[in-house]
Design brief:
about 160 residues; alpha+beta; Aminopeptidase; binds coenzyme A
Length: about 160
């Protein structure tokens, strides 16, 4: 059985490993996510996050199996530039060995309900045109996210999605 719970310290390392496995090409700021999450109340970490425009790493939730493996993750955070109106989705993914069993749907529904609780107007995310992220595009579309912006990068296109909450 899979259950979803708050990401607490004992699972942070496993969560980081899952994200590193699914998203090997992360930027420097993205690589700092779980370190920053763990130490988010420290002023130095808050200062570093502010350099990247991040206002807060609000919450992460993990899907855990019976053997205490982290098999999926999702999270929400805010950017300084739009923190009054939007909350952003972070690191939504499922371990490749556990896909196709409904975990992704449970996590996205969970994220949307938490985003609604935040009282913001928009739930935003970014993803990419990478074929490895195609399943996620379908899912985002199904749950009402629209692509509102595209940014051409050297090897892929960065897609910005938005759901009106
Ligand atoms: C997107 C992702 C989280 C889905 O997780 P999952 O646990 O396999 O999802 P589910 O089992 O809940 O299936 C959700 C839907 O996706 C469909 N799906 C699953 N794998 C698919 C694939 N490879 N291609 C197309 N659709 C797929 C399922 O059929 C289902 O649709 P349905 O309701 O019409 O049957 C997972 O594929 C993943 O981690 N992808 C890589 C990470 C990623 O791209 N994250 C988001 C980008 S920022």
């Amino acid at each position: 059985m899979i259950h979803i719970e708050n990401l607490e310290t004992p699972f942070i390392k496993k969560a980081g490993k899952l994200v590193a496995k699914v998203f090997p090409f992360r930027s420097l700021s993205e690589r700092l996510t779980f370190f920053a999450f763990k130490h988010q109340h420290h002023w130095i970490v808050q200062w570093i996050m502010s350099l990247f425009g991040v206002a807060s790493l609000s919450h992460f939730w993990v899907a855990i199996d019976d053997d205490n493996n982290v098999v999926g993750i999702t999270g929400i955070y805010t950017y300084e530039k739009d923190k009054d109106e939007a909350i952003w989705m972070a690191w939504f993914c499922v371990d490749p060995g556990h896909r196709g069993k409904g975990i992704g749907k449970r996590l996205i529904e969970y994220s949307i309900s938490k985003a609604r609780e935040s009282g913001k107007k928009y739930f935003r995310l970014y993803t990419s045109s990478d074929p490895n992220e195609a399943a996620a595009q379908n899912l985002y579309e199904k749950y009402g996210f629209n692509i509102v912006k595209k940014k051409k990068k050297m090897f892929y296109t960065k897609l910005y999605g938005e759901l009106v909450l």
